[in-house]
Amino acid sequence: MSLMNKIMADVTVQNSKIEGKGVFAGRNFRKGETVMKWDTSIVFIKRDALKVLLNKRKYLVVSNGMYLLAQYPEKYLNHSCMPNTLEKNHYDIALRNIRKGEELTTDYSLDAPPHIKMKCACKNSNCKRII
């Protein structure tokens, strides 16, 4: 099984208590372990990223200076002000041990394009309210 297929088998997309759909752990992950690898096949320069259709803009991510259109399943990775993953070189890495069935989250404020602002729905005690 390729690394991409293995990682895809390790997560599922389900309804989220945070918002809409979310990505959930299909198995236990240890701190520092790769949880997902991003599909980086759709890349934009900044000027063209601003022209992305409004209903797709929420899936725009800035990573390593590239504007990416997040694909399945990573496009369903919800924000949390206390995330359990961190993007590093187009991989989501576990920040702590994650249990099977737990929703995977990231901090959008670290990689959202600067022109996108949204209300936070994470409900954590240290919530930033606007990201």
Which features does this protein show?
disordered N terminus; 131 residues; mainly beta; four-stranded mixed beta sheet; 3 helices; Beta-clip-like
CATH architecture: Beta Complex
Radius of gyration: 14 Å
Task: Please give the count of helices.
Answer: 3
Can you tell me the CATH superfamily?
A: SET domain
Global geometry: globular
How does the helix and strand content classify structurally? mainly beta
What's the order of the H and E elements?
HEEEEHHEEEEEE
**Amino-to-carboxy terminus distance:** 37 Å
Poorly predicted regions are 1-7
Task: Trace the largest sheet across and list its strands.
Answer: 1-2-10-7
* CATH class call: Mainly Beta
Topology, please?
Blueprint: H1 3-9, E1 11-15, E2 21-25, E3 34-37, E4 43-44, H2 46-49, H3 54-57, E5 60-63, E6 66-69, E7 78-79, E8 85-88, E9 91-94, E10 103-106
Parallel strand pairs: 7-10
Antiparallel strand pairs: 1-2, 2-10, 3-9, 4-6, 5-6, 8-9
Describe this entry's structure for a reader.
The protein is mainly beta and 131 residues long. The protein has a single domain (3-110), classed as Beta-clip-like. The chain has helices at residues 3-9, 46-49, 54-57; strands spanning 11-15, 21-25, 34-37, 43-44, 60-63, 66-69, 78-79, 85-88, 91-94, 103-106. The strands form three sheets. It has a four-stranded mixed sheet with strand order 1-2-10-7. A hairpin with a 2-residue loop joins strand 5 and strand 6. The protein is globular. 21% of the residues are buried.
